[in-house]
Amino acid sequence: MSATRPVPSPLPCATVLAALVLGAFTGHAMAQQERRILGTALVGVNDDFGGGEVLDRWRTGVVAVHGVYGTAWPVDGDVRFGDVLEVRFRGEILAPESLDNPEPGDRPYAGTLSFGLHTHFRQAGLDYRLGADLVLTGPQTGVDDLQASIHDAMSLPDPENAAETQIGDAAYLTLSGEAARAFALRPGISVRPFAAARIGDETFARIGVDLVGGSLASGGVLLRDVSSGQLFEGTRGAATGFGWSLGADIASVAASVYLPDTDEFPGPEETRSRVRGGVMWAGPRWSLFGGLAYLSEEFEGQSEGQTIGTLSLTVGF
């Protein structure tokens, strides 16, 4: 049986999301002829990429599609709010350590789908992202059925037992934002401190820093994976060839709907930290990024952190 929890109507969430879409376009009608698709990124995250001995546990898998649309993104200079938009679709599976025999006190199973609109802009040398996502949870997403089908075809553990007590059907309007500034250390290498916050399905504030070099630091719109924190291109930068990144961050966590803190399930740890690194190879119109990230324990009683891998393919237009 699914965990009992209220199911908010998705209508208010969808209304606010639609208002953000309209607001991003309002006031820029004269610039419509300059707008175009700038890039598309397909992203996959999985604990299998990390080479761990135990697979399909905790933050086990993500598939996401990001589309960037708007006016050109310059290497330098200001960009107005709403001129560059990112539309994102994301599906994620969160799971206990054992799918077929979950232990008491482990995190509950959760399947999520999210649909979001974000704007990227630059003012006074600071790069900003601000946006909203409608996050759906529970059996209504069909994520548990999809995982069961895939595991059945590959003779992997059936998630049915874990999914019996999964996070229930609900819809959450989630607002998030990030501010970052790149400081050049030498040509082709920059350090990029950032601060971010999220309110909705999870509520936290985060600070961190990334060291970015080569083609990854050549002026494309940089997007950040929600789970791993890895930076990848949303649009192609000016340089081709090898690129790389190293990063770390820490978050202060206020709440998480995925960790309900009940007698049956654990609550979230007050802090989370991530350490990551990755490499990229880029052609004139495409780039391929791969990296690993270590995530610290996210819930009370989690036995250890975990390593997850990220792959992304970006096509620029």
Portion in strands: over 45%
The percentage helix is: under 10%
How far apart are the termini? 47 Å
Structural class: mainly beta
Q: What is the overall shape?
A: globular
Number of separate strands: 15
Strand order of the largest sheet: 1-2-3-4-5-6-8-9-12-13-14-15
Summed over residues and divided by their number, the pLDDT gives a mean of 88
Please give the count of helices. 3
Order of helices and strands: HEEEEEHHEEEEEEEEEE
Unreliable stretches: 1-11, 24-31
Largest sheet: 12 strands, antiparallel, barrel
Radius of gyration of CA atoms, rounded to a whole number: 19 Å
Explain this structure.
This protein has helices at 10-25, 143-153, 160-163, and strands at 36-46, 58-70, 79-95, 110-123, 126-137, 170-180, 183-186, 189-199, 202-214, 222-224, 231-233, 241-256, 271-282, 286-295, 306-316. The protein is mainly β. Strands 1-2-3-4-5-6-8-9-12-13-14-15 form a 12-stranded antiparallel beta barrel. Residues 1-11 and 24-31 have low confidence and may be disordered.
List the helices and strands and how they pair.
Layout: H1 10-25, E1 36-46, E2 58-70, E3 79-95, E4 110-123, E5 126-137, H2 143-153, H3 160-163, E6 170-180, E7 183-186, E8 189-199, E9 202-214, E10 222-224, E11 231-233, E12 241-256, E13 271-282, E14 286-295, E15 306-316
Antiparallel strand pairs: 1-2, 1-15, 2-3, 3-4, 4-5, 5-6, 6-8, 7-8, 8-9, 9-12, 10-11, 12-13, 13-14, 14-15
